[in-house]
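Recall that a protein's primary structure is simply its ordered list of amino acids. Everything else, from secondary elements to tertiary packing, is in principle encoded there. The following example makes that idea concrete.
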Amino acid sequence: MNKIKNIFKGRKIKLAVLILIVIVVSGAVFWVVTASSSYVSDTFTDETKIAKGTQKVNIDTSGGQVKLQDCYTADPSWTKIDDTNVRDIEGAYNETVAKDIYCDDTNCILYTDEVVPPGSVCVATDSDVYANILWHKTDISGTKVWGNSGNLLTGNDVGGTHGTLSVGNDPDVVTGKNWLERYYDSTAGTYTAMDECKALGSGWRLPNILELDSIRDQAKGSAPYTYLPNIVSSGYWSSTECSSTGACALFFSTGSVRTTSKTYSGYVRCVRGQ
């Protein structure tokens, strides 16, 4: 009888060891499979899962390991459009700096005067790129309203707040005004002008009023008060809110910034930081 018990006991131990081996091997296989990018599928389109202030990108993982694009490459090449004398965004209101405007087929940059940009420009880190901004070469088709009127920006709809700041030819004081966050928390469609820029993808957004004012030429004595291509002599929306019912728009017909009804049909020129 003891011999039989020992046989069963030995079989139980072997069975337990076998089960343990199966569990360990299965876990290892699962780890390898889930760690391999070729088995991962994600559309990267749900903005509710993206942290505030980050940039949403689409990533093709079909080829295995991937690397995010660091810089913008001109298509097909940069062409100098004009010289421009703009406000120094790091200095006093009336201080100016000379820049060159370069564009490819779809986008533009303001670059350090008399310096030729390389074919590939790291917009966010290249100190020669003025304000570290890439400008779309054309406006969004048609005019757009800024968004719903009657409520001030609050919570995660606020992208930031302007410090001591005067803008426009007059000038207009916008100290303490908030600008709209690209990844705002309110219901999609609340802020039409921003949504139009977001539809371009890859971090495109509406410029705040200081960014928009950075293309206003200080020496040009006629409308439109900029040398950036395809700007018309009318009002352009910024993401800066001036009041519960109005947002800041720069009118290139006069170079002035005005508090404009959020339901006004204004032009939209989008920007992107890399």
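Residues 55 and 141 are 24 Å apart (CA to CA). Residues 2-35 form the longest helix (34 residues).
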